[in-house]
Amino acid sequence: MDALGWDSCDVIIVTGDAYVDHPSFGMAVIGRVLEAQGFRVGIIAQPDWRSAEDFMMLGRPNLYFGVAAGNMDSMINRYTADRKIRSDDAYTPGNVGGKRPDRSVIVYSQRCREAYSGVPIVIGGIEASLRRIAHFDYWSEKVRRSILFDARADFLLYGNAERAIVDLTHRLAAGEAVDQITDIRGTGFILSELPQGFQRIDESNLPEERDDKVRIVGEAADTVVELPTCEQVEADKTLYAHASRILHRETNPHNARAMIQRHGDRLLWLNPPPMPLTTDELDWVFERPFQRLPHPEYGDAKIAAFEMIRHSINIMRGCFGGCTFCSITEHEGRIIQSRSEESILREVEEVRDKSPAFTGVVSDLGGPTANMWRLGCKDADTEKQCRRPSCVYPGICSNLNTDQLPLVSLYRKARQVSGVKKVLIASGLRYDLAVESPEYVRELVTEHVGGYLKIAPEHTESGPLSKMMKPGIGSYDKFKALFDQYSREAGKEQYLIPYFIAGHPGTTDEDMMNLARWLKANGFRADQVQTFYPSPMATATAMYYSGQNPLRRVGRDSEQVTVVNKGRQRRLHKAFLRYHDPENWPMLREALRKMGRNDLIGNGKVHLVPRTQFARPGARGRQILRTQHTGLPKNPKR
Known about the structure:
The strands form 8 sheets. Strands 3-1-4-5-8-9-13-12-11-10 form a 10-stranded mixed beta sheet, with helices on both faces. A 3-stranded parallel beta sheet has the order 23-24-25. A two-stranded antiparallel ribbon has the order 2-14. Among the domains are: 8-186, 3-Layer(aba) Sandwich (Rossmann fold); 193-264, no CATH class; 496-531 and 538-638, no CATH class. 46% of the residues are buried. It has 23 helices and 25 strands. It is an alpha/beta fold.
């Protein structure tokens, strides 16, 4: 501030992440966007939250404090799926854990208020975005009210907020009071009563009809949907599932309506989601003068999250997959926002020229999903009317453009940039889309795989897959056939690494057993296992909490969902994924006997676990593990 001649900041951003000036870090994006609008922006990264002292280091902001937990929800950042505290933090120098508090947005907001009372507090980022309504909180096993109330904040931004934050900041700078700004998309705030002139659509009760199709009353602009109250969803799990269904129905910004949810004697108001940024707008955001480095005060300390993405390029936002366990759609929307080819190639050159560590390898050209760049609805009018949660489930919509040849062209141009030796694709790949363009798979496999490609079929059985909104394992088989074919033609030995989830709603013990049999038959041994993690506001979390399926009409007699929420059963499902680990054999033998599947216990190739428990460490046990076929190179580290 002294070097710039500033006597104060207009906006001070408080974040739970270390400060990395890179377009993959939210606080850097917002800071650079506001800077380009002429505002003086300060960032307080990972403050000591035990007192207000760190929150005063840049003085009193002229306009507001912007508070975010960081790139991750603070609870997911700090705890495993088994609610065990993590010892590390990829967003902290030296990978040190414990540098941010639980529920960071709430704690940081409290300290900002203590530091300078009367300064407006604007909350945003993934933690605020996914806790914008009353939501089930996995860590406390209860429904919590909207984070706006607990943080006692003045304003909430959800989703991609560049346009909203610019509008809000200019209006505050022009002298408008924060409580008078009520018309910005992608925002939430608290009211004492419903404004006049709105047609209220009461969705606070379960639908009486056999269907619950959306019925528009008047124009969407002057209607507001009333969700069940915070108290109702806290007391009634069926109403919670119903509220989740309504919320996810109102995610298309072209037809979504404002929503309200009563919390006691006050109203939470949520404006419709933000409109997608145009290609020119997205290019402008990513072309701010990022240093692409961590702040110098960290010295030589490594920041793992930065090391992973320092040479990657984000080419798009959003995802139309709608996977129920994922929060991308709720946060970024299902309409794909794509950067221009020219902007992406300019960033490749910038990485080459700015990063002293660049060796010629671009680690990723991707985003939430690697191969959705420039894909979308073929017809603008159809897109404006659609309320489907997914464009690819239960099958690929006939109105969806699935042509990935423009992406092939981008890949080829990127690897032809002077100084670039290889361009890898590391983002998640939608393989059911990939097989629609075999030439894309050929280009990917021939030029952009570094020996292993990670994809996520998540399961093999129709029960859990239907609750995930994921394609059947047949789509994986088609992709694998193309992957193997093009690898052979390129003369390369390459492998698919599939990810699977244990304990997802809708999964039975038999489903996990069948998945384990598939893994063994296909030569896979999972080193690490991901267990379903109920993140705030996800559809699968509503299933986990309520035991009902909000993908369909919710009522007292609606479809019940199998829920894996007991410790022993969760451990069993994880054990099935690691069927090869001797430590899991006793539990698996017991489970298989109870399931009447003694035929899977033995020492043959068709058996899942052996009859005898070899001691560890023991020569015979090690020999079995060493010689078991995996389909991968015999590298102990893998």
